[in-house]
Design goal:
Layout lengths: L9 E3 L3 H11 L3 E6 L8 E6 L2 E6 L10 E5 L3 H10 L10 E2 L5 E6 L5 E6 L6
Parallel strand pairs: 1-4, 5-8
Antiparallel strand pairs: 2-3, 3-4, 6-7, 7-8
Length: about 120
């Protein structure tokens, strides 16, 4: 049987400064690397949020803005509390229990991509 690795989504970005600030300052991620074919060409980079890796691209045609991804976390209440404490003018995420039982926090990045952080709840919780 084929052994598959983790998924690394590619999300579109437009404003590099706001995107880097969102993923590093707001979400607490790190920029792992950046690539441009030439100095004045579009940026392609990788950001890590713990073990989660996301590629961000300025390249037209790589992906469409407004995508949605789901990222599992171990402590959704702590994530929610940390984001709420930042009191960011652009985001006031809620914490919601979904009908299927998961708890979720949803945020939009500067390109309108939806990041849904979730914690799987036990069936008896």
């Amino acid at each position: 049987m084929m052994a598959y690795g983790p998924i690394v989504p590619i999300l579109r970005m437009f404003d590099i400064g706001r995107t880097i600030a969102f993923y590093t300052d707001y979400l607490g991620g790190t920029i792992d690397w950046e690539h441009r074919f030439e100095p004045d060409l579009p940026l392609y980079m990788q950001v890590s949020l713990g073990a989660c890796r996301i590629h961000l691209s300025e390249h037209y045609g790589d992906c469409s803005p407004g995508a949605a991804i789901r990222i599992e976390v171990a402590d959704i209440a702590a994530l929610h509390a940390g984001l709420t404490a930042k009191a960011a003018a652009f985001s006031r995420p809620g914490l919601a229990r979904m009908p299927w039982g998961d708890d979720e926090v949803t945020v939009l990045d500067p390109a309108g991509n939806r990041l849904v952080f979730y914690e799987v709840r036990p069936a008896d919780a």
